[in-house]
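Chapter review: from sequence to fold.
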Amino acid sequence: MNVALVRLSSLGDVVHALPVAAALRRGLPQARILWLVEQREAAILRDNGAIDAVVPVDTRAWRRARSPLAAARAAGAVSELARHLRAARLDVAIDLQGNVKSGVLTALTGAPLRIGFVAARCREPLNAVFTNHRVLPPAAARHVVEQGLALLAPVGVRPAAVEFPLPLDPAAEARVDDFLAGAGIKARQRLVVLNPGAGRPDKRWPVERFGGLAARLVEEAGATVLVVWGPSEQPAARAIAGAAPRGALAAPPTGLAELVAVLRRASVVVGGDTGPLHLAAALGAACVGLYGPTSVERNGPWGQGARALRGADGTLAALDVARVYRAVAAVLDGQGGRA
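The token string follows.
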């Protein structure tokens, strides 16, 4: 059986779909599994033993095409993708994203069985036009991870456990060890990793509050704080680290492999509803999630919902430093629980 998984973006959502690939590999060990993913997120799937082939696409560039030449290139790329997918002779395509974009790509696979969510559970109900077996996840499947796994029922796979296959990159692990040693940081000895960035403004806790948290963690909890950052976020990371100059620092530039290595070494990871937080949870790191408009029940750090804090009015502005500090300190002290 040849199976295509369609989960294009974003990083956190791709991480949440990893258990589907793991369950397919266990349940149908002879299956050939392809994954269609955006180029920007493809790195998280590299060298993954649960997947036989990664098919990167660039729908972001296709949508930006404005000139006749750019449009022609986009059309050519789509045509070439369709030929590649048809040549793979796919039997099943599983759309884990549920919008029109992913639906079109699911249809391009030419798979006779195209599985997706019922229209009412899709991000964009029109997605259901492109699938021919639509699944309503059971009421007990509240988290997005569980909802994705429900799509495997039509192929007879019912996973007994949730697994996140995330391979190690030895070179990246060594680089992070060298950095930590050079900075005098002993991994997992009260190392708190802060991730202040997010793709949406309403998912970003204010920089000054991250700074206040960093200062309290260093001064009151005796923790070391490392601030990770992505494109255009370095000034914020430096400002946060500067709030506790004797015990906090901004991380060096990290690719995805280095980020994974950093998160593996953290005692606690603190961040909003964004990729690094979900990656940390998938790696088994303790997490304190900071939530505003998004649902903790559906999108909380996997298996650690009790540690996700949500602003009372549905905004991150309602979360103060004291509440977040208590939650992180409780994890550091081995107490767990909700602040």
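Two observations follow directly from the output. The domain at 2-155 is CATH 3.40.50.2000 (Rossmann fold). Residues 335-339 have pLDDT under 50 and may be disordered.
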